[in-house]
Design brief:
The radius of gyration is 34 Å and the shape is elongated. Helix 3 crosses helix 15. Helices cover about 55% and strands about 15% of the residues. Strands 1, 2, 3, 4, 5, 6, 7, 8, 9 and 10 form a ten-stranded mixed sheet that branches. The two termini are about 25 Å apart. The chain has about 425 residues and is α+β, with helices and mostly antiparallel strands.
Length: about 425
């Protein structure tokens, strides 16, 4: 109803300005330049083509309205098929299961408990039947005093990535760097799976007086420290130790507390060194894999432990994220298909309305054609040819320019989706063309 009302506003204003005398004189075929007489053979198809050319604006409107729904459908199918489960799962979880505190997995909770996995809980988990390997992540957060070189690098980062550091969220953090030469640091201790899944971008991870240091950007650019630099890590309570930077990298996002300060630095070492320096024995999380054929049984044990034995804990599993992925994919496909259907319906109604209006306005013209010998069959053939031309041009536009428009829309959408892999899809266009 709203669509019809909006569509009628401008035409009604034009119609209100037309006097009765002007209305009587009006026919769709009036006006324009005089054309030279032609001796070409006149056919129903030729006459249909000429009729479309007489009203180019209307023809373009009809073609675009018919094509738009097909283009949107193609975009919807392409994007939904481009959802890459492997990328999604790899980013969201690096093991079959992991257990942590409920506050960590709840994105709405700011007061996250970052040391909920006690040695007793870790022991209970390792005693589950069907586990093949485990790994813990420990974490401590402190203020880090930058070296002179790191301070200069941090200033360059603040300038280079200024657009990504909104004053509202990181203004104080930037001032701390410039005024105090300090930055928020996270110190991680890892072992087992957590150590194996480190995202190393440069160098290698070794035990001893070595650490892995993060960069500002996920792709490894924006170094605070370089490989070979010496860095003094503050563990709190006045305890510090100097390490050599052995690698540039970070722990897997799935094993992190899953929030960011936007401007911070991460130091990662083996858990035995972390515990020796901090005295902290509680972990942020514990990750573990199932033996072949034991996944379902292990999932039941984990679920029972988190629901009935320690209800403060929560777990995530590979199947949890697979279900979440399929839900998001289906939701996108359903919503896109509904929008495509609505636009398609509007396009068909627009096409039908244009044809009916054209026929109604050209009744005088048809009467003249029939008076000079055009049969009813020829008249119908001309009108069918006119509709066929609209359809043919719409198909050609959809398969050519429509593909380019689809690609542009898909690129804009996929830039916001880190788990998207582009795959060329043209079958919706072909099926729609056939239909």
């Amino acid at each position: 109803f709203v669509t019809v009302m909006i569509s009628c506003i401008k035409p009604c204003r034009y119609a209100a300005k037309v006097s009765p005398v002007d209305a009587v004189r009006y026919t769709e075929t009036q006006g324009g330049r005089k054309r030279k007489k032609r001796t070409n053979k006149i056919t129903s198809f030729r006459m249909a083509f000429d009729n479309i050319k007489r009203t180019p604006k209307k023809a373009v409107s009809v073609i675009l309205s018919v094509s738009l729904s097909v283009i949107l459908l193609n975009v919807t199918v392409t994007v939904s098929r481009g959802f890459d489960m492997d990328k999604y799962i790899k980013n969201m979880i690096v093991s079959d299961f992991y257990i942590t505190d409920k506050t960590v997995t709840n994105p709405l909770r700011a007061d996250k408990n970052l040391d909920s996995i006690t040695p007793e809980i870790a022991r209970d988990v390792k005693n589950f039947t069907g586990i093949s390997e485990t790994g813990c992540t420990y974490m401590s957060q402190q203020m880090h005093t930058l070296s002179d070189k790191a301070y200069e690098n941090a200033k360059k980062i603040c300038e280079e990535y200024k657009a990504e550091l909104p004053e509202k969220y990181v203004g104080q953090l930037v001032r701390d760097i410039y005024e105090k030469h300090e930055i928020i640091s996270r110190i991680y201790g890892v072992d087992g799976i957590a150590a194996d899944k480190l995202e190393i971008r440069e160098g290698k991870f070794e035990s001893g007086n070595y650490i892995v240091v993060s960069s500002f950007a996920d792709d490894g650019s924006g170094h605070y420290y370089d490989i070979g630099d010496k860095v003094t890590v503050d563990f709190g309570n006045g305890k510090t130790k100097e390490y050599e930077v052995m690698a540039i990298g970070d722990i897997a996002y799935a094993l992190s507390p899953q929030f960011s300060n936007m401007l911070d630095i991460y130091f990662t070492m083996y858990s035995d060194e972390f515990i020796a320096q901090t005295g902290e024995t509680n972990a942020l999380n514990i990750a573990f894999n199932a033996k072949d054929g034991e996944y379902a049984a292990l999932e039941n044990q984990v679920k029972n432990y988190c629901e009935n034995i320690d209800s403060d804990l929560d777990f995530k599993s590979r199947s949890t994220y697979e279900d979440s992925f399929r839900s998001a994919q289906n939701m996108f496909l359903i919503i896109g298909s509904i929008l495509s259907f609505i636009l398609g319906l509007i396009g068909l109604l627009n096409f039908a309305n244009s044809m009916i209006t054209s026929i109604s306005a050209r009744q005088h013209e048809f009467a003249v054609l029939q008076s000079i010998g055009m049969t009813g069959k020829q008249l119908k053939k001309m009108l069918v040819s006119e509709g066929g031309l609209y359809a043919a041009v719409s198909i050609i536009f959809t398969l050519t320019a429509g593909n380019l428009i689809s690609y542009a829309l898909i690129a804009a959408i996929s830039n916001q989706m880190w788990f998207f892999t582009y795959r060329l899809v043209v079958m919706p266009l072909i099926y729609s063309a056939i239909a």
